[in-house]
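step 4 of 6: structure.
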Amino acid sequence: MVYALKLAQLSHAWGGAAPLFEITQLALPQGENLFIQGPSGCGKSTLLGMLAGVISVSHGQLEVLGHDMVKLSSVARDRLRGEHMGVIFQQFNLLPYLDVRANVLLPTRLFASRAQAAVQEWGDAQTQALHLIQTLGLPSSVWHQPVHQLSVGQQQRVAAVRALMGSPRLVIADEPTSALDDANQQEFLDLLLGSARKQAASVVMVSHNAHLAQRFDHVFAMPLRRQA
Amino acid sequence: MWFSLAWRSAWSRKQALAMVMVSVSVSVLILLGVQQLREDAKRSFSNALSGVDLIVGPRGSATELMLYSVFQIGRPSRNMSYEGYTALAQLPQVHWAVPIQLGDSYMGHPVLGTTPELFTRFKSQGLGLQWAQGRAFADPLTQPEALSEVVLGAEVARHFGHQLNDKLVLTHGQSSGLGTEHEDHPMTVVGILAPTGAPIDRSVIVSLQAFEAIHVGWGMGISPSAFKTAGGLTQAPDVKDLQPASLSAVWVGLHNRAEVFSVRRKIESLERGQLMAVMPGVALDELWQIVKVVENTLLLVGMLVAVSAMFSVAAVLLVAMAGRRKELAILRAMGAAPLALMVFVLLESLLVCVVGIVVGYGLCQALLVAAQGVLRTELGVLVQAGWPAAQAWWALAGLCGAALLASCVPAWRAYRLSLSDGLHPPSV
């Protein structure tokens, strides 16, 4: 079986402090999605940073998209992220000095493999982008709009479109819905997970909001920090 | 792609960056302006007396002699004998010799007593004198009425609005006051010179004999009218008797410039060694040695301004990094390595500096061209706009190097931030 991610005995500690978390075993088959739930401060974001390759693994094993993140150099991890992952933040995902179009096409501009993937499946990157904009429920008029004219909800959807451009295999989302109201949260999640599933991309999302967990294939609760 | 992103990003913060750019431009303007003015001043001064091979005067300071006889700065403390002039003029190697008599003034402008030969011999920037109006004064030895004729330099005529046939009264010495005007001897304007950019533009030129005539009866700098002796003294003297006993200086042209050293030795052996012959170029070099301190101070100030501008670039862009943490995190999430982000920021700072340098250079040239007229007439400095001189290239290269160093500061900050923030910048 192909795994989007696979980890064992993974722990992380900042400086000389007590470990932030320790995860014995976790594996996510490629194409399935995972909800990581835990209160703030439990190390969810640090775990996401490790999955994305921004934070080095110091203790334990971590494989992402078949790559051993322990052995990979930081530059190689950056490249892996750029070529095969999409990232969605809680808010402010878009570069304010680019319009929606330029923001969305950015992954395909920065990495040739993302552009190739889009061309292979859709003929060209713009076609894929317009398709994703439609499936995420955005009006096609946003295409040339400056980012600051969009609502927060629209901005999150554009961020999802960008994350899915060029068919990444893993989408990492850090509280992507917390800036949205309840109705929007549900819709956004449905659209994100639906689009990712069509592209056979895995989605790993962290949130403190346990209500969102029911839409995911797998749910993982961050282990509580051991009291010293 | 990175370049285009850096450009779009910079453009979105164009106001702050424009301010930084202006501060760089101003520093470049000062640095290059000082440099170029210095070069142009040197060249113009060297060319101010292009036809003269030797300046002869009383033994003393070569720089002083050149300053008062050519640039009319300061005044002679001693004179050379008239016999010295006639003796050197007879040397076979000497092509021509023009006597210079100084000491009087007209409304603050120096009066130059000389012979009509000056108008044919004088060259500035390699060009001879041209007449705006009128003619040279005649030789009083053949035409005694020439004793009251005067020629004005372009600047004097322009400043006082003088026309041909205007009457003017010269002042004894440099100061103007009761009893020191040569009221008894008014002069008539017969010619006005075209502008040359040389100090002669600020001069009032009369014949040697006229210079003598207006001083007849004067002793110890006091006007004869002050004695109220109505008899004899004011009657027109015989022109032949109006030969001065001494001169301020003599400009000498040679048949063959290669003989300048031997002629100088010969002249300095005349009159029991009381004369000094100076090559204008050599005297100018001495002068530059003296003003070097001022020059270097100006250059140092220019450099300090440039350095402070570079620090301000670094400071402003460093402060701006705080507001760009989100941007860096987004780019990082898109797969940008910290090193790439460092280059990203470096590119921008460098762009600001380079544009600032180019704008500053353009501004400098534009200002020099705009001030060309004033610099020429007021200071006698002929500016040449164009590509920077070799030295200016070094200055520009130094500035670019400083810009690169200054750019490294925010770039390094970007690198550190993108490493520590990762995907989670503190929310702004």
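step 5 of 6: annotate
 - The helical segments of chain A are 44-52, 74-84, 100-110, 112-122, 125-135, 152-164, 182-198.
 - Chain A touches chain B through 31 residues (CB under 8 Å).
step 6 of 6: archive
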